[in-house]
């Protein structure tokens, strides 16, 4: 911008030249005191010019600088905004892992209670040591699963810290958003739309520059010089001189290229329009996909509590049958795992619901 504004300042031009001419002006008669003109000519000039009217060239240059800066700013905003999607994915993935680890603790307590109970059965001769081994296998599998969840959470946590640019303590507790308080709006206000608009305005400023280049330019100038000859062509000695006045210039060469230049700009505009339309179409598709996914998950969640209640009832019945000796411990482990899967399904559905809501919020920038 500063460079464009300097176009309004007076411009200085220094010229130094030395020439040899094949011929010079000659007077056909001999006049006393007038020598023949030298074919070697020398001169140094300094011209100061001040633009009065440039057809809007400087103004279009300033607008072009502003438009280019805006485009670069919007491109940066788009790049930063795209990180939000990755941050959301990591955030909810960590939330899901935390919920699974909590369920693992509940399952560990459940398995330990059954282990203690079956140990008593073995001591009383009601159960076999193999039944105790079956519970131990489930405990080992649980430990194995917890190791996997813990290491995965550590990796996700480090990635989230890197994206946020902060060294987050590993024991930081992430808050779980409440789906009931999330109001989803559908109008799209993504930064990509601002970027498309900025690119179109930048192309408009380029077109203004083409128009400005077709107009004449008017300015004042003063030229001072020293050379041989000076302004007096009959004086063959070195002399000082100056010239001042008004100058009008008109470059008709721009007429040859302006049609192609305008055509290039029109093509670029059409490309931006096409990119914007494609973006809006894809965004509309994503909105519909996320909305349907939200409705689907909500429909599934309404059955989770009942499934968990029934699985718990089945598990308790299985425990009673093991006590009476009518059901094997292996079958009991199957029912305990079924209840745990039902609880994990509920946690998964709730987390998926929040994640999908935030994906919709990301898609619309609300």
UniProtKB/TrEMBL annotation:
Gene3D superfamilies assigned to the protein according to its UniProt record, in alphabetical order: Outer membrane efflux proteins (OEP) (1.20.1600.10)
Family annotation (InterPro entries): OMP_efflux, TolC-like
Protein's UniProt keywords contain Protein transport: no
GO molecular function (one): porin activity
Principal location listed in the UniProt entry: membrane
Keywords on record: Cell outer membrane, Membrane, Transmembrane, Transmembrane beta strand, Transport
PANTHER family to which the protein is assigned, alphabetical: OUTER MEMBRANE PROTEIN TOLC (PTHR30026)
UniProt protein name: Outer membrane efflux protein BepC
Provenance organism: termite gut metagenome
């Amino acid at each position: 911008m500063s460079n464009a504004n300097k176009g309004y300042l007076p411009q200085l031009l220094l010229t130094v030249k030395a020439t040899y001419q094949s011929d010079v002006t000659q007077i056909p008669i001999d006049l006393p005191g007038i020598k023949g003109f030298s074919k070697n000519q020398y001169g140094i000039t300094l011209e100061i010019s001040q633009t009065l009217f440039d057809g809007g060239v400087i103004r279009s240059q300033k607008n072009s600088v502003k438009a280019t800066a805006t485009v670069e700013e919007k491109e940066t905003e788009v790049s930063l905004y795209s990180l939000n999607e990755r941050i959301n994915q990591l955030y909810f993935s960590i939330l899901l892992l935390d919920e699974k680890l909590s369920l693992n603790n509940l399952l560990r307590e459940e398995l330990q209670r059954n282990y203690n109970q079956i140990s008593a059965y073995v001591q009383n001769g009601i159960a076999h040591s193999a039944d105790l081994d079956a519970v131990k296998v489930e405990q080992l599998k649980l430990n194995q699963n917890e190791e996997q969840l813990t290491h995965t959470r550590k990796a996700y946590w480090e990635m989230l810290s890197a994206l946020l640019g902060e060294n987050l303590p590993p024991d930081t507790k992430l808050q779980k958003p409440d789906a009931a308080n999330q109001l989803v709006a559908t109008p799209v206000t993504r930064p990509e739309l601002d970027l498309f608009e900025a690119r179109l305005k930048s192309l408009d400023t380029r077109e203004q520059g083409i128009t400005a280049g077709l107009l004449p330019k008017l300015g004042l100038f003063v030229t001072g010089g020293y050379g041989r000859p000076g302004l007096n062509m009959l004086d063959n000695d070195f002399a000082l001189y100056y010239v001042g006045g008004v100058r009008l210039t008109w470059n008709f060469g721009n007429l040859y290229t302006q049609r192609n230049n305008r055509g290039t700009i029109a093509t670029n505009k059409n490309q931006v329009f096409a990119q914007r339309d494609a973006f809006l179409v894809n965004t509309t598709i994503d909105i519909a996909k996320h909305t349907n996914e939200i409705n689907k998950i909500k429909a599934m969640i309404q059955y989770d509590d009942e499934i968990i209640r029934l699985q718990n009832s089945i598990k308790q019945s299985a425990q009673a049958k093991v006590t009476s000796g009518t059901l094997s411990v292996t079958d009991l482990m199957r029912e305990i795992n079924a209840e745990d899967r039902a609880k994990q399904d509920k946690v998964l559905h709730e987390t998926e619901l929040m994640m999908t809501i935030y994906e919709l919020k990301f898609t619309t920038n609300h």
